[in-house]
Design goal:
Elements: E1 6-13, H1 18-32, E2 36-42, H2 49-56, E3 78-81, E4 98-101, H3 104-111, E5 119-124, H4 135-142, E6 147-150, H5 153-163, E7 169-170, E8 192-196, H6 205-218, E9 223-228, E10 242-246, H7 250-258, E11 262-265, H8 274-281, E12 286-289, H9 294-297, E13 304-307, H10 312-323, H11 327-341, H12 346-360
Parallel strand pairs: 1-2, 1-4, 2-3, 4-5, 5-6, 6-7, 8-9, 8-11, 9-10, 11-12, 12-13
Helix pairs in contact: 1-12, 3-4, 6-10, 8-11
Length: 362
């Protein structure tokens, strides 16, 4: 019988972020398989006056600091939170078989740890320089002598072509069909576009709203369903025909996806974006920019459409193509979206992740 592993994940703040959700999903499944899984994370710092000013100016790059929830809440996984915001140090981490960095800064911390803390793995869910991290330090972490596990083929290509590492293992994100599902359905009574709302420039919400405004000029009874983690500020308002849910619980999130005829993503860069995948599991076609996740799953005219980043007019055109389908055509696209989503499961992701971890241990 194969011996269980002692596995440590090192995170920054374990809040309501997609990357944390991925770690929680994998960590829980690894624990169910008998592995000892420990999560070590840092608390959220108290906001400074500069942070408040940045938020007022629309420059806050992450969920508002009052968001204290975590995807580890309620999970049967050991989660150790440091007493204050600071780097995770050797003394904070148990001896283990493998220790896993989960973003660029944690890779710096893990690299400094002694062998007793485990074989060092860098689980890469984004090229963090694309979302504002310092390029020189991010690139340095990609060159560290650590096994890379990446969530999307484009990151494996980056590892090979830019950092001369052909050994990065791809573990695509999964979707939980117990959480995200919907019965067969037809088009909504009023054409409806769904999106995740965020003021972070990388999420492309301004382009999404621009495309939606173009569609509204053609479809006057258009509706919008949106969710997010913050209250929309005055500098980036949702239109009056939009309904917005802040921090929806999982069953509510499923229902939001199922109320849409098409899901819109205008992100500039993603490792493997979760909301389009979850929307597809709820039988919703996707119109997206070419970012990680959608570009791995969406096939033009079959289960949605892809366009280049920043192309508002192209987004509007593809949204209109989906919304203009007759009932049979839309149902065919909806069914295809579901079939694609079900090809990616968290159990299969955990299989690949576990295998990669075992191969990392001497």
């Amino acid at each position: 019988m194969t011996e269980p592993l002692r596995i440590t994940f090192v995170l920054g703040h374990a809040g309501i972020y997609g990357g944390v959700r991925v770690v929680a999903s994998l960590g829980e499944r690894l624990r169910r398989r008998g592995h000892r899984v420990v999560i070590v994370s840092t608390p959220l710092p108290r906001p400074t006056w500069r942070t408040h000013l940045r938020r007022l100016m629309g420059r806050w790059p992450a969920p508002p600091p009052e968001i204290r929830q975590s995807y580890f809440d309620g999970l049967d996984v050991e989660h150790r939170v440091l007493d204050r915001p600071r780097p995770v140090e050797t003394s904070d981490v148990p001896d283990a078989d493998v220790v896993i960095a989960t973003w660029w800064e944690t890779a710096e911390w893990v690299a400094a740890m002694p062998p007793a803390k485990g074989a060092k793995v860098h689980f890469i869910q984004q090229f963090d320089a694309n979302v504002g991290a310092p390029t020189d330090r991010v690139e340095a972490t990609w060159n560290l002598p650590m096994r890379k596990i990446v969530c999307s083929p484009w990151l494996a290509d980056l590892a090979r072509e830019r950092f001369c590492d052909p050994h990065a293992v791809v573990v695509p994100n999964g979707v939980d069909p117990d959480l995200f599902h919907a019965p067969p359905r037809g088009k909504q009574a009023h054409p409806t576009i769904g999106l995740m709302y965020s003021t972070h420039p990388n999420k492309g919400c301004r382009e999404s709203l621009g495309a939606i405004a173009m569609v509204r000029r053609r479809i006057t009874d258009l509706r919008v369903v949106a969710f997010g983690v913050e209250n929309p500020p005055r500098h980036l308002p949702l239109p009056g025909y939009a309904s917005y849910t802040k921090l929806p619980p999982q069953p509510t999130l499923r229902d939001l996806y199922a109320r849409c005829d098409v899901w819109l993503c205008a992100s500039h860069s993603e490792g493997f974006h979760l909301p389009p995948h979850e929307a597809m599991a709820c039988r919703c076609p996707v119109v997206s920019t070419r970012v990680g996740g959608p570009m791995d799953m969406v096939v033009d005219g079959i289960n949605g459409y892809l366009v280049d980043t920043g192309e508002e007019h192209a987004l509007a055109d593809r949204l209109l193509r989906v919304l203009s389908l007759d009932e049979d055509g839309w149902r065919a696209m909806s069914d295809a979206a579901l079939r694609t989503a079900m090809e990616y499961s968290w159990d299969s992701a955990a299989d690949l992740f576990e295998t990669a971890l075992r191969r990392s241990v001497p």
